[in-house]
Amino acid sequence: MEFVHEGCQAPCSIKGIVIMMENAWLIPLFPLLSFLILLLFGKRLKEASAYVGILFTLASLVYSILVLFERFSEPTYGTNFEWLTIGDLHLTAGFEVNQLNALMLVIVSLVSFLVHTYSKGYMQGDERFPVFYAYLGLFTFAMLGLVISPNLLQTYIFWELVGVGSFLLIGFYFYKEEARAAAKKAFIMTRIGDVGLFIGMILLFWQTKSFEYKEIFAAVDAGEISTSMITLTAILIFIGAVGKSGQFPLHTWLPDAMEGPTPVSALIHAATMVAAGVYLVASLFPLFAASKTALLTIAVIGAFTAIFAASIGLVQTDIKRVLAYSTVSQLGYMMLALGSAGYVAGVFHLMTHAFFKALLFLAAGSVIHAVHTQNIEEMGGLWKKLKLTGPLFLIGTLAISGVPLFSGFFSKDEILAAAWEGGHPILFLLALIAAFMTAFYMFRLFFMVFTGEARGSQKHVHESPANMTYPMILLGVLAIIAGYVNTPWFGTFLGDWLVDGNEALAQHGHIEGPVWIMIAATVVSLAGIYLAYLMYYKRSLARNWLSGTGDTLHTIVLNKYYVDEFYQLTVLAATTAISYFLRFIDVFLVEGLVKGVVGIVQGLGRAGSKLQSGQVQTYGAVAFIGLALLVVIFAFTGGYLR
Amino acid sequence: MSSIPASAFLALALILFCIGLYGALTKKNTVIVLISIELMLNAVNINLVTFSKYGVAPSITGQIFALFAISVAAAEAAVGLAILIALYRNKKTVNIDEVDTMKN
Amino acid sequence: MDLETLKSFEWSVMTPEFIILGVAALLTLLDLFLPKKMDRRILGWIGIVGILAAILSVASLLNVESTSILDDSFTFDAFGKSFKLILLVGSALVMFLAISYDAKEGMEDYRGEFYYLFLSALLGAMIMTSSGDLITLFIGLELLTVSSYILAGIRKHNLQSNESAMKYVINGGISTAITLFGMSYVYGLTGTTNLFEIANKLAAVTNGQQAYLLGLAFLMIFVGLSFKLAAAPFHMWAPDVYQGAPTPVTAFLSVISKSAGFVIVIRILISVFYNAAPTDNGEGILFKMHDYLAVIAAVTMIIGNVVALKQTNIKRLFAYSSIAHAGYILVALTTMSSNLLYSIWFYLLAYMLMNLGAFAVIQVVTEQAGSSKISDFAGLARRSPILAVLMGILLVSLAGFPGTAGFIGKLNIFVGAFYGTPHYVLAAIMIATTVISYFYYFGIMTQMFFRPASDERKLNIPFGIVVVLLVAVVGSILFGIMPNIALDFLNNLH
Q1: DSSP category for residue A247
Q2: Of the partner residues C233, C239, C484, the one whose CB lies closest to the CB of residue A626
Q3: Going by C-beta distance under 8 Å and a sequence separation of 6 or more, which residues neighbour residue C175?
Q4: Contact criterion met (CB < 8 Å) for A621 and B97
């Protein structure tokens, strides 16, 4: 097998020094091993399965961190080998460690490790405990594999595998009707996106004769692909990202996916998989950057999703659903950043969001674990009872609301700056309003859950065990400090590093916005918090002071803008409209055809079976007749058929 | 040596081959079937020997080939008869058309 | 040929053959002289050691340049090396099956013969991979065939085994005669049995009558050899013989014997007919005959897959499936694409792994059930989940799903069908029949996973079966995920 060393154009490091990156392919392998072990021996290991999963993801985490540190001082490392050769068709496989995926590796393996640890407490006593850990291993493997893929084909394979993992985990409580439906919905909705991605990928292959990111970027750079083709493929690929990252209009599966166990929501539907869409756009950024139209599309969809989902989040009463809509909204933010050419802003927010959203979900899980309900109307006054969860939830809430000094503040600020500098004042305004809404509904959630009188039937409320709280504490620390790697005050280390040595990205590095943006963002988020404070803590404002005036509006928002209903209705209408036509085709053409083919096949089978009479001389005779037929044809055609 | 043309030998071989094939495909007695197969193989030997004498490029190799073919045919016949005996012990018949427990 | 010439030959390239020959002779003697009561399985283990030694010796000879000894009647080249490895590895796996085989009745006293007959059959197949002469090709073929006749009937006191062997002998005899008849014409037109000389002489044939005779010879040889491939029109023996023969023998017939059949077909077709009687534009007779090959390939695929749908016996089902797989490989042979050898070799490799693995499971299940109905697989997932999952993987590979070696094998052949003159019809038939094959492969899956077990006993899995399954499943997945390992190996052969 011949390994082609790439990424060693500049002064190549002495061999042996990049030992960590050379073996980065081990990172996804650890969770795969965990999956296989649990698949085979899960039944025997029982609750000990957790340790297998935790240990293997810990190995991945440690290795990822080592790789990240090595990447700080060394250039990008990538290696490829010919995976499949059929004639002239050469397909390669391999892995690459660049800035973006070195960072992603750490994020994914860290969150996965924490969720593995947390689940040991959360899933305690579940009958299918080992299966849960096996699925987690499978998902982590797929996600890490997706991250280090150096080409589109490999990315696509892992992309689908990630979808399978997500499907299995959403439907983990398969005996619940809602869980089954949610798993199915997630599968179908993301599949719609995948079709776009697949077509885009094939088109790119057709244009560039390669799936390699490097080759594709080189072809784009050299102007080998027409601009309209770039736009088309970029938008098709973006459709894939829309499906995975729950962007409008394919967002409806994500809130439903909350039927899965809460740690799963934290891992898959907050920190990692849903960010895969953003990651895909980021890793193909040079392609998108080559088309203004594609970037604008992304920015518009992103901004619209951000405000759209935030507005739905205002009125939800299920703690996980509020968080789900906030995830959709935050992913919209990231898309907006990328669409406004703010590469660093998007990736930065992806990182901070992974930490604080995972924290919020785990804390929410801890709350649910304590009170056994997800309805925030039935909670309240938990601050005193959950001494750890409460403050941690507050940290997450402050971070997502963009309160200064917390991580979300810096990344959100960078996005707003990107939108403004990118020349999209309207989108900037939308993002600002969404920031206000975010602060409002997150604090609404906080106040309703943790302050005021205890509502509903709360008995035996107790703090979660240590293996659930420790991961939260670690995430809490990260939710505070993760922002400081890229600030206008203490240096833009992350931003500079991310685009270092990459000309295509260099112009999309850290964006220094005007100071007033930072002030505006702070004011907006504090205003949101204050309004929530008035309404849900002081209760000096009636809770329906707004919804009372616009009852219809409230209903519309409460029903998530009727998008699901819209789908149902349009699909229904379309179905009835063309059902007659389809039925006609079905009955007279398809069914007839199918019946015919099946009949022929079965008839042939029956005839062949009947000919098999058990008489050995018949067999010889058939062979002889076959030979005779061939010879006769040969004789009559005077030799050859052509 | 002779005025018999090569084509006569080849025709003989072909006829012998066809007789053998006919016997192998129609006879009821398995012993006869095995003998018929021997006939087919012998037709091949006639062919080989003819070609070694009258072929496009006559050579001794054909006769060597024929010797190998004869010995292999003997081995095949021996094995065939042995199997037939084993079958006869279990089934008490040598009629080939009664051997049809496995079919369809 | 005097002693000096004999001594000057590089006999070392025949080491693998000598090892197998020596071990086979040793086993014969041991079987004769060992006390009657002693368990003959020890012979099987010696046989396995012998085969492994032969594999090692082939491996150590991999870097030897192509060598011809004994007046070109034995050629040790890349073709021989690569196919020998498949035959040897396959035979080692079959030996493991044979050791684990425990028939209820019919072969108590003949267990020893079981093992050395496998070796002599293997020896015949190995000689074929290296022969450069019609006579040695024929001898190799017959050594393989005659050994397999006895193997099929080794359960002397079992009527089905007798019947299977009888049918095999009669059909085999007819096919041998037809092949030989065709060969005799080839000899007649060239006056030599050396394949290289035949090729040279035939390339100079311009006489229309001679070319016509050559066409007839081609058809006879091919139809005769289609017996070994279990391809149309000489396929009908396969289901009956497969059903009646002991399971390890069935596995042997469906894999080793079939691979050997393709070896001889490739040898003869490529070296004899490829450039024979060329037309003005230099196309050999093989190109002009490939419509006949296409028809045979299509008929084979259709018959194999369609009739398989009606089967209720697992061994008969696999007989039809093996007919179908022969059809797929014939597609590669028909299209004569530039990577013909690679695609056939890879397919045979993949087929060897997945089919032997499947037969390992079949052997365990049928032995326990005492019959070989497909319904005996019902509820296997409950009785032995691991066995069911492994069988599932192998079936998925046989059906040709992505991620498995079976898929890559089919993909190679399918893409090859569009090289040169594209064979759209053949490619379409291949896809259609592959889809048909899903029905019967997944029929077995349904039995294993969704039907209640009629027999709740746990299955005990002997060590030999574990080895075979491990190699088969790991190989099927490995070559499905990293197919270029095989390609690089083949490309690096001299």
Answers
A1: -
A2: C233
A3: A623, C224, C225, C226, C227, C228, C234
A4: no
Decide if pLDDT at C125 tops 90.
Answer: yes
- Helix (H) or strand (E) segment spanning residue C69: strand C67-69
In a domain, B40, yes or no: yes
Against chain A, the chains showing at least 3 CB pairs within 8 Å are B, C
Residue B18 placed within a domain:
no
C426 CB-near residues (< 8 Å, 6+ apart): C294, C297, C298, C331, C334, C335, C417
What's the pLDDT tens digit per position in A162-216? 888 888 888 888 787 888 878 877 877 788 788 888 888 888 888 887 888 888 8
**Nearest-CA neighbor of C126 among C96, C87, C82?**
C87
> In 3D, which of A468, C303, A417 has the Cα closest to residue A409?
A417
Q: How far is residue A257 from each of residues A117, A141, A443, C118, C200, measured CA to CA in Å?
A: 22, 20, 23, 58, 71
List residues of B whose CB lies inside 8 A of any C CB.
Answer: 17, 20-21, 24, 30, 33-34, 37, 40-41, 43-44, 47-48, 50-51, 55-59, 61-62, 64-65, 68-69, 72, 75-76, 79-80, 82-84, 86-87, 90-91, 96, 99, 101-104
The answer to whether residue B33 sits within a structural domain is yes
> For residue range C442-476, what is the model confidence (pLDDT) as tens digits?
888 888 888 887 777 778 888 889 999 999 999 99
Q: What is the mean pLDDT of residues C9-19?
A: 86
Beta-bridge partner residues of C365: none
- Give the pair of three-digit tokens for residue A109: 């393996």
For chain B, list the contacting chains (3+ Cβ pairs, <8 Å). Answer: A, C
> Which residue type, as a one-letter code, is found at position A156?
Y
pLDDT in tens, B25-64: 999 999 999 999 999 999 999 999 999 988 888 889 999 9
Distance CA A288, CA A509 (A): 15
The whole-angstrom separation of Cα C67 and Cα C82 is: 15
Annotate A391-426 with b (16+ C-beta within 10 A) or e (fewer): bbbbbbbbbbbbbbebbbbbbbbbbbbbbbbbebee
Beta bridge partners of A97: A77
Cα separation, C233 vs A237, in Å, equals: 50
In a domain, B11, yes or no: no
| Torsion angle defined by CA atoms of residues A474, A476, A481 and A482, in that order, rounded to the nearest 10 degrees | 80
Q: Among candidates A429, A439, A418, which has minimal Cα distance to A524?
A: A439
Q: N- to C-terminal Cα distance for chain C? A: 29
Q: What is the enclosing helix (H) or strand (E) of B64? A: helix B61-91
Q: How far apart are CA C124 and CA C138, in angstroms?
A: 9
What's the domain range around B59? Answer: 28-91
pLDDT digits (tens, 9 = 90+) for C171-226: 999 999 999 999 999 998 888 888 888 888 888 887 778 888 888 898 999 999 99
Tens-digit pLDDT profile for residues C96-116: 999 888 766 666 677 888 899
Question: How many structural domains are present in chain B?
Answer: 1
For the ranges A8-12, A327-331, B82-86, C129-133, which has the lowest average pLDDT?
Answer: A8-12
**Residues 6 or more apart whose Cβ sits within 8 Å of residue C349:** C86, C405, C409, C475, C479, C486
* R_g over Cα of chain B: 17
Scanning every residue of chain A, which has its alpha carbon at the shortest distance from the alpha carbon of C209?
A639
pLDDT at A506: 66
Percentage with pLDDT > 90 across chain A: 0
Minimum mean pLDDT among A330-334, C57-61, C276-280: which range?
A: C276-280
The 10s digit of each residue's pLDDT in C370-414 is 888 888 888 888 888 888 889 999 999 999 888 889 999 998 888
Q: How many CB pairs under 8 A join B and C?
A: 146
CA dihedral A598, A599, A605, A606 (to 10 degrees): 150
- State both tokens at B88: 């006869």
